[in-house]
Fold:
Amino acid sequence: MASSFLSIERLTQRYPDGKGGEFTVFENASFGIEKGEFVCILGHSGCGKSTIMNILAGLSDPTSGVIKMDGQAISGPSLDRGVVFQNYSLLPWLTTLKNVTFGVAARFPQWTKQQVTDHSIAFLEKVGLTGDAIYRKPSQLSGGMRQRVSIARAFANEPKLLLLDEPFGALDALTRGTIQDELIKVWSGTDQTVFMITHDIDEAILLADRILLMTNGPNARVAESVEITLPRPRTRTTIVEHPNYYAIRNHLVQFLGERSVLLAGESVGDETHRPETVRIDKTEGAADAEPLLRAVPK
Ligand SMILES: Nc1ncnc2c1ncn2[C@@H]1O[C@H](COP(=O)(O)OP(=O)(O)OP(=O)(O)O)[C@@H](O)[C@H]1O
Structure:
């Protein structure tokens, strides 16, 4: 099999259990992400999503396993991998604009000051931040505005891989919806590869090309890779009318409600530990229109 742009191979994380032994968070997690793909990961609290993200960001080392990006094993943090956390992580003493130019100047050292500023302003505009807001400090912005700055900053740096750890978790539903739309807008204009943690099924369906489903921990596994067979561009009002929408949603709800527990600790996927691919397509003429779901092993 040709290797993916980002390839996670047999990733295992164990931690001390506090009683002299150890517990396994996940074992042999293996999956790939293609260049330009938007992949979300869903799973119950504690299954190890943030642990996977921290390893991808280079902020922690796994117990075993290999991660390759563009064929090269990765280790440690790098400007090639940008991260957006739930808590914004902006530099409080810098203005909005400087929070963005700071990273852009480091990423593109050959650029003039003007190029860095123009590039940064363009990305802030894409997330709706214009005018005097870009000269304010983070403490003078709303939570939604701060998260917009984080997203603009991450995309403006043009990392090869963008890691989003529940970026909208702290926002109210309306602000969340607006920023999701802005995120799609920014992402659509790039060939950016995105890996995102979310707890929100609807958010994952709206944004992702593919959703990875994890079973419950300990001994969690990435059990399924569900293709989001909804055409782009997507909006939250049009996708619900698509024949695939509820079939996909029901599948995800059913997995998180029942199968994530039933499969916990069981061996799933093929012998290489890759998740089962699930493709749901109810559109007329689709090969798997009847039955609706591709068989998924129980
Ligand atoms: N540094 C650590 N030392 C020991 N145990 C840890 C450490 N970091 C995480 N864990 C444990 O590993 C498991 C997975 O944690 P992780 O934060 O990755 O889960 P998660 O799926 O991201 O959860 P949530 O959705 O609640 O954020 C949990 O049981 C957690 O307590």
Observations:
- The longest strand covers residues 22-33.
- The chain has two domains: 4-79+158-277, 90-157.
